[in-house]
Each structure stands twice: as C-alpha cells, then as structure tokens.
What does this fold into?
Amino acid sequence: MDNAINSSRTPQSKRLWLLPGLGAGLVVLLLSLVFSIMLGAAEITPATVMDSLFAYDNTQFDHLVIRTVRLPRVVAGVFVGASLAVAGAIMQGLTRNPLASPGILGINAGAAFAVVLAVFI
It folds into this structure.
C-alpha cells in the first residue's frame, strides 16, 4: 500500500522541477544566443547586440553584420538543433527505447548508400 502512495507522489514532484528547469534552460539558451552573435571576426559588445536587435540603425556596420550575417545563422542553428531534438524524441518514442539511435532503423546504412550512389553518379 505504501508503494502505491509513494508512486503517486513522484509525478507531482517532477512537475515542481519542470518550470524552474525550463526557465533555466531558456535563460541559458538566450545567453548562448547573445554570445554566439558576439563572437566572430569583428568584436561586438553585448550592448551593440541589444541595440541592433531593439534600436536598429542601418548606418552602423556592426548592426548590419548582426542583422544580415550573424542573426540568421544563429536562428538557423536553433531551428536545426530543435529539429534534431524532436527527431530524436520521436525515434525514442517509436522504438520505446530511451537509447535509440539512427542505426536501429537502418538510417546509417541508407545514408552510406546515398553517399556511394552520389560518388558513382
């Protein structure tokens, strides 16, 4: 009887950590986005990044670099990462295996076949 009571409390305790965990993950994501926009050949400060996002001035070179080069690259990286995460979650759900990999479904063999086919054609 005690096991049934304890097992019913487990999902609620996991839910309590869900919101702070998601909030911390969002903060880390936003900080990494700002840092990835800052890093590059031209030195750009965090204030310049914020100015280019919220008070854009097309006469400043740094704002042009951020808006035309760095920001699209960062946004594309976020979308690619999210897509890979969703694909992994779907694969784990379909196979009911938390350690699922593309090799289980033969994706590696199909990719190798496509590479060989592309080389010979």
